[in-house]
């Protein structure tokens, strides 16, 4: 049930570009629920898909990304080290589904760095998971979707989850279909 973005949301999180819609997802009750969401989405992701991961520090962006990368890597992923890209800004992995790029834009200075890091090009041909897309808002790629995770007041582990996507996004359609059967 997509609908125009309903405010208020956390004012520290950047609003999506104009024309994007928001779909409230079932709350993620604990870290295991966030892992289950990553496992549900992994099979429908293809080269050229970008998921922006938005949320405050500790919201679970890296936890989701790490689980998704492991799921895409198959049995090899269980042993793989998936370091945080906080300082390197990007980390790349090989998988049967194609290359996976994990990025964290928190420390990125100039949006021009996207090109220098090769992330711009990677978005065309890899599966890209990008934390802190707020740094490039509102210039979010029109082929991307955004998973927003927000802490729930009074609950230690529960996270509110919202899918933000351009109207008619094929990637959003695939993800919502995958969640419906998960
Ligand atoms: N529902 C949840 N979803 C994701 N992580 C959760 C959840 N509940 C608790 N956590 C914990 O919160 C922490 C989130 O850290 P991290 O994924 O690094 O956050 P971020 O990358 O958003 O800053 C992890 O230690 C994780 O185990
Ligand atoms: Mg992180």
From TrEMBL:
GO terms for biological process: tRNA threonylcarbamoyladenosine modification. InterPro entries: P-loop_NTPase, T6A_TsaE. Transmembrane segments: none annotated. Keywords: ATP-binding, Cytoplasm, Magnesium, Metal-binding, Nucleotide-binding, tRNA processing. The keyword Metal-binding applies. GO terms for cellular component: cytoplasm. It comes from the Bacteria. One of its GO terms (molecular function) is ATP binding. It holds the Pfam family TsaE. Its main location: cytoplasm. SUPFAM superfamilies: P-loop containing nucleoside triphosphate hydrolases. The keyword Zinc does not apply. It is found in: Cytoplasm. Belongs to the TsaE family. This is tRNA threonylcarbamoyladenosine biosynthesis protein TsaE. It comes from Roseicyclus marinus.
């Amino acid at each position: 049930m997509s609908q125009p973005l309903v405010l208020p949301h956390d004012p520290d999180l950047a609003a999506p570009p104009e024309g994007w819609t928001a779909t409230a997802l079932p709350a993620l009750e604990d870290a295991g629920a966030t892992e289950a969401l990553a496992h549900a989405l992994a099979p429908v992701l293809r080269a050229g898909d970008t998921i922006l991961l938005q949320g405050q520090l500790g919201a679970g962006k890296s936890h989701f990304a790490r689980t998704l990368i492991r799921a895409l890597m198959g049995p090899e992923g269980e042993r793989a080290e998936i370091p945080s890209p906080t300082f390197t800004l990007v980390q790349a992995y090989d998988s049967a589904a194609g290359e996976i790029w994990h990025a964290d834009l928190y420390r990125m200075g100039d949006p021009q760095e996207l090109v220098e890091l090769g992330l711009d090009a990677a978005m065309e041909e890899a599966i890209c998971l990008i934390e802190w897309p707020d740094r490039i808002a509102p210039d979010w790629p029109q082929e991307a979707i955004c998973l927003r995770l927000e802490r729930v007041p009074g609950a230690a582990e529960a996270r509110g989850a919202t899918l933000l996507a351009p109207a008619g996004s094929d990637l959003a359609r695939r993800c919502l279909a995958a969640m419906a059967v998960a």
